């Protein structure tokens, strides 16, 4: 397995660690209070850093593959799969935490199902589709939006305290942080829809041939 494929695999391996620091633990009703308190206070920031590291592997695996001519069918598959798994897993956690609407997650997941279906049909023709530029833009907007949402708790804390430690945040500061996050997530959903329609229209021939 070459280095780009190892980076894609690393992105998949990091997913449970990102989730671990995002969500409190409850095992058959038992909740480790110290751990959950740590998650509540610092967990999301750690998860955000891990998410950024995982996202950067997406940037580097593509660059390395193109620079050293290491592009393979396995690499195309792993790169796309790792992106989807990372983004959808974290969005599910954000839905669980009440920050992202299930409707927005549904749009993103349904788009991925559609694209995966088209790729499966194309694979029967011996074609392994690499990610398109518009798909990469979509993934980038998703990762930017998710990163911001994951840093929101830290932004709230920063805006809540001055240099002397006294609470300073007003309602407008809190609303601004949330509004920016909402705008970013809507942008990524719009790009998800646009890229999905682009993918569908440009690959209608595979659907026609499968009839």
Query: What is the structural class?
Result: mainly alpha
Shape: globular
Biggest sheet record = none
Number of beta strands: 0
Average pLDDT works out at 85
Helical content stands at over 70%
Number of domains: 1
Q: What name does the CATH topology carry? A: Four Helix Bundle (Hemerythrin (Met), subunit A)
Radius of gyration: 19 Å
Per DSSP, what share of the residues sits in E-state strands of 2 or more residues? under 5%
Topology:
Elements lengths: L2 H20 L10 H35 L5 H24 L5 H23 L8 H28 L10 H32 L1 H6 L2
Structure description:
By secondary structure, the protein is an all-alpha fold. The protein has a single domain, classed as Four Helix Bundle (Hemerythrin (Met), subunit A) (Up-down Bundle). Helices cover 80% and strands 0% of the residues. The protein has seven helices and no strands. Helix 5 packs antiparallel against helix 6. The longest helix is centred in the first third of the chain and has 35 residues. The radius of gyration is 19 Å and the shape is globular. The two termini are 37 Å apart. The mean pLDDT is 85.
Provide a compact summary of the structure:
The protein is an all-alpha fold and 211 residues long.
Highlighted features:
211 residues; mainly alpha; Four Helix Bundle (Hemerythrin (Met), subunit A)
